[in-house]
Design goal:
single chain, about 550 residues, alpha/beta, pyruvate-formate lyase- activating enzyme, seven-stranded mixed β-sheet, five-stranded mixed β-sheet, about 40% helix
């Protein structure tokens, strides 16, 4: 049987994560002897199906599957499935991925025949067998399908327990080169990249980063997220490190990005990973996307740094304990502060991530988030507004409260969503008691406050830079041969060294205060942190 997988892509987002869902599905079918193709779309917002028609006609599949990872591609799936049924009426149309959390809406309002619910690696093999034999789907677990005017659901399928049985994704069906991000180009997008891990510049270090999953599932059940199942299932360490070595050879890379919903399930697992990594003695650098703060401590972070970790992304979500409780994060503000400072201490970069506008958010809770960022001393952060998508408690809340009445219309309209235009879009939902105009100012106010606060600490930073420049040239006796730029640096440092800094609008008392505050915040042993730790936890 011929099976064609279509992966809608939005070109407004850069390629970074290969379509592993489609690639694992393809592997499952290929292992059963089926012929598979993967078509990665260039832009799901384009409804010019001329190229799609050509590719379908060329391959002549028996079934087409949409790997609809995100709900924002609903309108594309609706239009494309209609086009396929009009021009290729005998082809079965299947959809899988995050969009199937709204399976009822999809099957009622589109030309999709079958929705695969949850993990599809095993389900798809059984389903394709039924399609090929033209028999009933009723005993295929984990699907919903249309039968006349009725939508029928089969028994749910349990998550795959042993991920090692999946084999390796079908890399040969996708142009992986477009997903190999240049590491140096990537880090230059951050304002502090010059302070990052010097191992980037080692002569043998390849600059290509490949993102790979190491697990499935998540221990969290954040109310704005649909990407959770019951617990985490990890690939075995033997599988994982064999897989990494395979990819190093195949794509000539020694840099990886572990892109999981939740990388670690516990501190115990984190230590097991570190020990297994050391035993295998693989020379790679890696970043971790999706790490809970309750799965690391100071020692774990230092050990991760030693084996090659240079970046960890935590979902701090908010600096308000009230909002963390609404999100159901199940951590305290103090937990987040400790891990942020320990990560900085270990020399691992992190970009704090926040979600604004959850129910109960106010200007006061935003101010708490600002104070949190000040305490962890990060200049760069990322934030987005709460966005209800099918399969999340937030979406169910929006329906219950009457924010979403017509699901078909809502899902059609969110296709135009981007983080930059969301609050101005017609589908924006204000869950707070504040007006929309006030909400729009929150990111700007956060940025303004953080920059104002951090600018005080920049004084000490530049003094250290100037001292370094002065020492370099003075030690080798080249003060008389410096260019004009270096001479200005040396002159400025000599002025500061001699204590005459009034002309730079900085008082000695101010400089001492900034220096003391900076040292206390950066060092987990500092007085400020001790005072913070002595306070009782909120919530």
């Amino acid at each position: 049987m011929k099976f064609q997988i279509i992966v809608p892509q939005y070109k407004g987002f850069s390629y970074f994560h290969p379509p592993y869902g489609a690639m694992y599905i393809a592997r499952s079918l290929m292992d059963e002897g089926h012929e598979v193709r993967i078509e990665v779309g260039d832009d799901w917002k384009s409804f010019d199906f001329e190229e799609l028609h050509k590719r379908i006609e060329e391959f002549s599949p028996d079934a087409i599957g949409f790997n609809a990872t995100v709900s924002t591609c609903y309108l594309y799936v609706k239009a494309a499935s209609k086009y396929i049924k009009q021009h290729f009426p005998d082809i079965k149309v299947i959809v899988g991925g995050g969009l199937t959390a709204a399976a009822d809406v999809v099957l009622k309002n589109t030309y999709v025949d079958i929705a695969v619910l949850g993990e599809g690696d095993i389900t798809i093999k059984h389903l394709v067998d039924k399609i090929e034999k033209k028999t009933s789907y009723a005993d295929v677990n984990g699907i919903a399908y249309r039968e006349g005017d009725r939508i029928l659901y089969t028994a749910p399928r349990s998550p795959i327990a042993k991920l090692d049985t999946l084999g390796y994704p079908a890399f040969d069906l996708v142009d992986i080169d477009k997903y190999l991000t240049n590491a140096l180009d990537f880090i230059k997008g951050f304002p502090t990249y010059r302070e990052w891990d010097k191992r980037f510049y080692e002569p043998h270090r390849n600059t290509k980063i490949l993102r790979i999953p190491t697990s499935r599932g998540c221990t969290s059940k954040c109310s704005f997220c649909y990407r959770h199942m019951s617990g985490i299932r990890h690939f075995s360490f033997d599988y994982l490190f064999d897989y990494i070595e395979f990819l190093m050879d195949k794509f000539d890379t020694n840099q990886f990005s572990f892109g999981d919903e939740c990388f670690s399930s516990s501190k115990r697992w984190s230590w097991k990973f570190i020990e297994a990594f050391k035993e295998r003695n693989i020379d790679i650098m890696f970043q971790i996307f999706g790490m809970r703060v309750d799965t690391v401590d100071r020692e774990i972070l230092q050990a991760l740094k030693e084996i090659g970790c240079w970046m960890i992304e935590y979902g701090f979500e908010s600096g308000s304990q009230k909002m963390l409780n609404v999100i159901d994060k199940r951590v305290s503000i103090q937990d987040n502060i400790n891990v942020a400072l320990w990560t900085k201490e270990a020399g691992i970069y992190t970009s704090p991530a926040f979600v604004l506008g959850m129910p109960g958010e106010t200007t006061e809770t935003i101010n708490e988030t600002i104070e949190f960022i000040k305490k962890i001393r990060y200049d760069y952060y990322q934030c987005t507004y709460a966005f209800p998508v099918p399969g999340t408690p937030l979406y169910d809340y929006a329906r219950l409260k009457g924010y979403i009445v017509d699901e078909d219309k809502y899902l059609e309209e969110i296709y135009d969503f981007t983080p930059n235009n969301f609050i101005e879009s017609k589908v924006f939902i204000n869950f707070t008691s504040e007006d929309k105009a006030t909400m729009a100012t929150w990111p700007k106010e956060m940025t303004k406050a953080i920059r104002r606060y951090n600018s005080k600490g920049l004084v000490q930073y530049y003094l250290l830079k100037l001292k370094s420049a002065y020492n370099r040239v003075s030690q080798i006796g080249l003060l008389g041969y410096c260019n004009d730029y270096m001479k200005r640096k040396v002159k400025l440092y000599k002025i500061i060294k001699e204590g005459d800094i009034r002309n730079k609008h900085i008082s000695q008392q101010k400089l001492k205060s900034v220096n003391s505050r900076r040292e206390n915040l950066i060092s987990p042993e500092g007085e400020s942190l001790k005072k913070i730790n002595a306070k009782p936890k909120d919530g």
